[in-house]
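The following record pairs a protein chain with its ligand, FE2/S2 (inorganic) cluster.
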Amino acid sequence: MSSKSGQWCRAADMSKCRSCRAPAVIDLPRHNAHFCAEHLEQLCRRQFRRAVDDFAMFSHDDTILVAVSGGKDSLALWDMLATEGYSTVGLYIGLGIGRYSDESHDVVAAFAADRGLELRTVDLRTEHGFDVPTAARVTARVPCSSCGLSKRHIFDEVARDGGFDVVVTGHNLDDEAAVLFGNALRWDVEYLRRQAPVLPARGRFPRKAKPLVRLTEREMAAWCVIRGIDYVVEECPMAIGNRHHTYKEALAVVEATSPGTTAAFYLGFLDRMAPLLATTADEEPVELCRSCGAPSGSSDGVCAFCRLAERASTATPVPVEMVLSRGARRRYIEQWGDAPATEGDTDGRP
Ligand code: AMP
Ligand code: FES
Ligand code: ZN
Ligand code: ZN
């Protein structure tokens, strides 16, 4: 099963906290130091505040929509925002990824209920007639592409309809460094240009911010342990083995021998490279989708999400097991229990 806390926080033997000399609970090689629970929490809050302030992400007057997946990062983020006195509402999107999605929803709902926080849930199949496994089969593309498209569309829609000032996500330093690495390997200048920790509101698109960009995956896992937050430990079964994971693993190899490289790579990009890429060109006027009213950016007047929904909602629903590769399916069954009868291996392809 999932949603266990504890496995990420490596106790640091007899080492002492850099700040107070109490027994340490974690070593952070990039800071060349150990920390006790109290001072790790302080360090995380300091890095969070620095990101929020440096990039003018939001203020205490803003209403914040927090996208929560049930994983450690977004739950830690919601906890940080709420305990720092921000006005927040959580948003969970049910992507229809079998028991992984069911469990994620339960974990997010329990987190919100325990802390008296408001949670909104949008279920892709109930509200838009399809789910991510079916979309992956229909489009014959990697699941993450229809998943990402659907999440972005729903974040925007809920923020617009609810009058939120900003949408925040739990992308951390390791996530952003891996995306940067991939973009740089392809020299995808357009993506590099848009890889900012905050994107201003544009027309009907709300402002978007990533307040955890100065914090690593391991620090966020430790935060959850210290703060008693239950989270879904398992990764999305459909994303296992994708390119993003490969980039993360490659950076982890470098980080293991040269601690601090990941932070220097990403934060150095923001500091020294991103300003050179910033464009001064006027934004194009945005066409609105004639189906949902969202900005469409396409010549046929229908946004990519509505096009996807039109195709996927008429297809026979496909259970997640059917679109996993053999190895991923084996892991899925180990983690989440036995699957219904399958059509045979598909290697993730329709
Ligand atoms: P991922 O793309 O899975 O790495 O997730 C990045 C961020 O997107 C998370 O930290 C959340 O803020 C948000 N997110 C991912 N999945 C969901 C979901 N099902 N519902 C709401 N937000 C999500
Ligand atoms: Fe999007 Fe897994 S979370 S494909
Ligand atoms: Zn201490
Ligand atoms: Zn649309």
